Amino acid sequence: MKESSVSTGPDAVYLKYLGEGTAHLQRCEECAEFFFPPRVLCPHCASTSYKWSPISGKGTIYSSTFVSPAKEDGPGHSVLIVQLEEGPRLLGTSPDVTAADGKIGEKVRAVIEPFQSGSRLSFRIDES
Ligand SMILES: [Zn+2]
């Protein structure tokens, strides 16, 4: 059986940084905008010149929903869209958001947590 190919594109670089415990996004070297999801050219000006820059992880909850499975399947989980200070919106989860309160507009801060065989972003309400 042939081994599946391993991505070496921008998505793989994003995940590599997460695996190392830091969140980086691409930032265009022409117009200076951050962008996400990872891609090979800037969605603002179409430049192919970018560098990976660390982000603060700070943002506000733009949208949220709560997935409530059947009781026997566990407690459920939130799915958020977070507006980052740097501009892009990211998808993530949060243990601080439940079905009862979507917390739209609340300040949050990203933490990196293990997920399956890699890492993912989770957001905590930022009390600072
Ligand atoms: Zn650009």
Question: Would you write up a description of this structure?
Answer:
By secondary structure, the protein is mainly beta. The chain folds into two domains: 1-54, no CATH class; 56-128, OB fold (Dihydrolipoamide Acetyltransferase, E2P) (Beta Barrel). 8% of the residues lie in helices and 40% in strands. The protein is built from one helix and eight strands. It has one helix spanning 10-19, and strands spanning 24-28, 34-35, 50-54, 58-67, 77-84, 89-92, 107-115, 118-125. The chain has a five-stranded antiparallel β-sheet. A hairpin with a 2-residue loop joins strand 7 (107-115) and strand 8. The radius of gyration is 16 Å and the shape is globular. 17% of the residues are buried. The mean pLDDT is 90. Residues 28, 30-31, 33, 42, 44-45, 47 line the site of zinc ion.
Quick tags:
mainly beta; OB fold (Dihydrolipoamide Acetyltransferase, E2P); 2 domains; five-stranded antiparallel β-sheet; three-stranded antiparallel β-sheet; globular
Q: Biggest sheet: strands, sense, closure?
A: 5 strands, antiparallel
Number of helical segments with 4 or more residues: 1
Q: Could you name the CATH topology of the largest domain?
A: OB fold (Dihydrolipoamide Acetyltransferase, E2P)
CATH first level of the largest domain: Mainly Beta
Order of helices and strands: HEEEEEEEE
Q: Tell the overall outline.
A: globular
**Mean pLDDT over all positions:** 90
Helical percentage? under 10%
Distance between the termini: 52 Å
CA-atom Rg in angstroms:
16 Å
Name the hetero compounds present. Answer: zinc ion
What structural class do the secondary elements suggest?
mainly beta
The parts where pLDDT drops under 50 for at least 5 residues are none
Number of strands: 8
In terms of DSSP E residues, the strand content is: 35-45%
User: How many domains comprise the coordinates?
Assistant: 2
Reported CATH architecture of the largest domain: Beta Barrel
Strand order of the largest sheet: 6-5-4-7-8
